[in-house]
Sequence to fold (240 residues):
Amino acid sequence: MAGIILFEGPSDLDGAPIVIIATDSSSNAKTGDMIQTWILRADVPPHIAARDGRDVSICGTCPHRFDPATGKRTCYVTVFRAPLSVWNAYQRGAYPRATLKEAREFARGRMVRIGSYGDPIAAPLAVWRNFARDAAGRTGYTHAWHSLKGSRAIAWRGLVMASADSVAEAEAAHRAGWRTFRVRRDDQIMPVERVCPASAEAGKLATCAQCRACAGADGRRSLGITILDHGPGWRQRVAA
Fold:
């Protein structure tokens, strides 16, 4: 099966209709063999939503969304490629709606990427917990960690990493109990971090599927992960 629908319903960010689709294919050399999950507006093509601001339903206030004031979008995901292809297939009815049991079976024994596009917190935590329950492992990241409080923050930080774009952000996230994934533009590495093993600077020692470190504050690890800025959009990020 090429893919399944994990969730269709209102976004936890703004109530607009969203869909989460899991696909069983990836050509990403860095991540390796992982099930990908795409968090999309159900009613708007992703490249249009990214341009007119309706991607707030799936990305929240991520700083890498399109900025009308500057005309720049610094997100590493090229939305008119994989996200648009998945959305078009969804519109054609290519993906069946999975039951909770079917979703678990789809991911059983596999590595899962929570949020190949979109922020995981756009959907209910229970969706992700169920999907990843029998998986071999997971990776996941949220830029919205600072908006989560109390028991909700505790629950989410056990599942995903806090995305940080500066030392100050990473320090704040660690103080709040999060493990971090920080994209940096220099050689400064914090004492609470180690370099991503899948990165070029580390010699591509392992894929994400092999490393499995970006699984949140699960009690087994404490160090954050850091990587030099790279990939699509890095030139715009440097100029930002």
About this structure: Residues 3-239 form one domain. Residues 234-240 have pLDDT under 50 and may be disordered. The chain has one domain: 3-239. The longest strand covers residues 3-10.
